[in-house]
Design a protein that fits this description.
The model has no long low-confidence stretch (mean pLDDT 88). The chain has 319 residues and is of the alpha/beta class. It has a single domain, classed as NAD(P)-binding Rossmann-like Domain (Rossmann fold, 3-Layer(aba) Sandwich). The chain is 36% helix and 14% strand. The strands form 2 sheets. The protein has an 8-stranded mixed sheet with strand order 3-2-1-4-5-6-9-10, with helices on both faces. It is globular and about 60 Å long.
């Protein structure tokens, strides 16, 4: 073990639900203070914050309401974390969305479903999924260099996706953001050996979180009888291993430690399905075919795309 999270402190964005909540909870259970940054807390997240706000708790949870598209609020997030915890050791810019109708390539700005302003010059999906992780990474590095102790390795853990390897006609902006995250993480690789800041990422398959389960338009492409979900808890375990270990097992759950071991260093991207593997930047075989990586009815979304394109005036505000 190269690093223990016990007695350390972290920021996790998007931890009001899903993978990031599971990761924040796991950090807290292992004695790490966590600032949870999100627009709001789901009931299960509020329970975690309440539990770890008690004076008797050995680790502390703080909720900071944060819109990750607002850079001032990202800066404030670090200011609050420093005030509460002092030195930070772990930052996870995890907040993300999966191409909802309100910020979607096939429902362009100015059309009825979109909330992206027609002449606003930006997509919310890019701001949340890519610009926010980039800016948060900059802020984290600045904090680590300014406030960090050289003997304490620092960690930035990103949330990528198998979409960072695959094309997907139904979600092209999402796919572009996850390719971007992989490129960002790999570009930061040398920080590990040079300044002790390890930047890594997990690339999950199909995860049973509100990102999917709260959206009927996405759930219709999943066949529960044929498709196998990966749990947010399984992904969180791999994220913790990226921080605490110098290698990660290729098998998670009850059989963890019995599979192949993948070395961990700056720039590592680990695909997490029902197994774990390192994603190579060159000549990678891709994620297809492994349990937890597939959805049976992706053609449903593709049919929707061509249905939208068949409408007269697609992409105009007059549609």
């Amino acid at each position: 073990m190269s690093f223990s999270v016990q007695g350390r402190s972290a920021i996790v964005t998007g931890a009001g639900s899903g993978i990031n909540l599971s990761f924040a909870k796991l950090l807290l259970e292992n004695g790490c203070n966590v600032l949870i940054a999100d627009l709001a807390l789901r009931p299960e997240a509020k329970l975690v914050v309440d539990q770890y706000s008690a004076p008797s708790s050995r680790s502390k949870a703080v909720f900071q309401q944060t819109d990750v598209t607002d850079w001032k609020q990202l800066e404030r997030m670090f200011e609050v974390a420093e005030k509460e915890f002092g030195e930070l050791d772990i930052v996870c810019p995890g907040a993300g969305i999966y191409e909802p109708h309100w910020t979607n390539f096939w429902r362009p700005p100015g059309t009825p479903d979109s909330r992206d302003a027609q002449h606003g010059g930006r997509y919310a999906l890019l701001d949340i999924n890519l610009t926010h992780p980039i800016r948060t990474t900059q802020l984290a590095i600045a904090h680590f260099l300014r406030r960090g102790t050289p003997q304490r390795r620092k960690h930035i853990v990103h949330i990528s996706s198998i979409a960072g390897q695959n094309p997907a006609l139904g979600a092209p902006i999402y796919v572009a953001t996850k390719h971007g995250i992989n490129g960002l993480v790999r570009s930061m690789a040398q920080l590990d050996s040079k300044v002790g800041i390890r930047v890594t990422a997990v690339a999950p398959g199909v995860i049973k979180t509100p990102l999917w389960t709260d959206h009927p338009e996405k759930m219709k492409i999943v066949d529960d009888k044929a498709d196998e979900w990966v749990t947010p808890e399984e992904v969180a375990q791999v994220m913790l291993a990226l921080i605490q270990q110098d290698s990660v097992s290729g098998i998670i759950g009850d059989q963890e430690g019995k599979g192949p071991q993948f070395p961990v260093s700056g720039g590592t991207v680990l695909e997490v399905s029902k197994t774990v593997r390192a994603v190579s930047p060159f000549n990678d075989p891709g994620p297809s075919g492994r349990a937890g990586n597939t959805v049976s009815d992706m053609n449903v979304l593709e049919d929707e795309v061509f249905g939208l394109l068949s409408q007269k005036g697609w992409g105009t505000s007059k549609l």
